[in-house]
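=== RUN LOG ===
request id: a7f3
mode: sequence -> structure
chains: 1
length: 451
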Amino acid sequence: MRALSWRAHLRALVVLGLPLVGSNLAQMSLHVTDTVMLGWYGVDALAAVVLGASFFFMVFILGSGFGVAAMGMVAAAVGRGDEVQVRRDVRMGLWLSTLFGICTLPLFWWSAPILRVLGQDEALSALAQSYLRIVGWGMVPALLIMVLKSFLSAMERAGIVLWATLGAALGNGLLNWMLIFGNWGAPELGVRGAALASLGAQAVSLAVLAAYAGWHPALRRFRIFARLWRPDWPAFGQLARLGMPVGLTGLAEGSLFTAAALMMGWIGTVELAAHGIALEAASLAFMVHLGIASAATVRVGRAEGEGDREGMRRAALAAIALSVIFGLGVTALFLVAAGPIVGLFLDEANPAAPDILAFGITLLAVAALFQMFDALQCMALGLLRGVRDTAVPMGLATISYWAVGIPASFVLGFPLGLGGVGLWLGLVVGLALAAALLMARFWLRQFPRVA
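=== RESULT ===
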């Protein structure tokens, strides 16, 4: 990465980032497919799987920290030319992910009592548990996929990640059609069919990525599966120390939006429905920022491993510029085309559709306001992971989201009487503070004279 021009840095980020963005969007399509097909099947089934999938996702976010942290570690080792360290980091990432996934199985098996304690309906909790008892076995393969995705991304071979994810999305849709409804001679399994479809899609995706990572001629020399059964406690400990803060940071951010949804439910059903639609649109944009941030982790990590300070600085600035340009485009789209965007999610025959549409348009205007802050805080986390700085950023993010963002949402929404708009303005406050603190952390620590 030495002496690369700005144009070369941007080109490298785009080449690496586009497949990662595509794989993120394809991964999100799995959830959309489940939601649509179960919506056709029945209201109770849809509600149970939305509840169960949210439960699974929050646990997954915590465990995915090991895989995400491995990306920066592997990229730095590649930059140093240390193939042995690459193998050590990947193997222990697989170990930690497997151990975490196994430890979570009791949560899924006895999830109904947990959901009831959280205030969910008894029948709905039981149906969600029947889903989670099957899909919970997919936690290990889902986390192993994250580790392999990080390895392949760090090797700048993200194309296979995109194709594997697209294949999984297609397979999930076909299996859903077969197992939820009992088509093509299969039994009609409802929510259990959706769980089996997800499990099958994850297993196939894992097999494809493992085969590619282990046997592709350009990657075979890393021998990442060699003596996989042997522990490597120094690498295990380092990855655990870096990975757990990453998972907790993701959990803190995810719970910020979960808390906003719970508070929106206190206001009304129309507001909650509009919140879900606006959040779905904002989440699609976030998947792009996340892909660019992952590419930035790799590029900055490689430059840091090579000892190329100027390359680190240029890679970081190029990634920020790319994310800001996209963020400005999304901001304009949310302001100009809010009505058609919200309308895509609505049935005009629904009597509440006009009210949901009107409030959804208002929320998308607020989402346009936090686009830049969301982009910058996501990018800052990606840059910090590239230099393996995760513990302090976890604290800064948690303070921003929980000590400031959620209280600001509550105060603006209820005591100050701004309702649902106030709740989303509180999200803006939390994300803006996170962006400022995390960006300052990266630049002041890595480039004190420049900053």
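=== NOTES ===
The chain has two domains: 25-231, 241-451.
Residues 241-451 form one domain.
=== END ===
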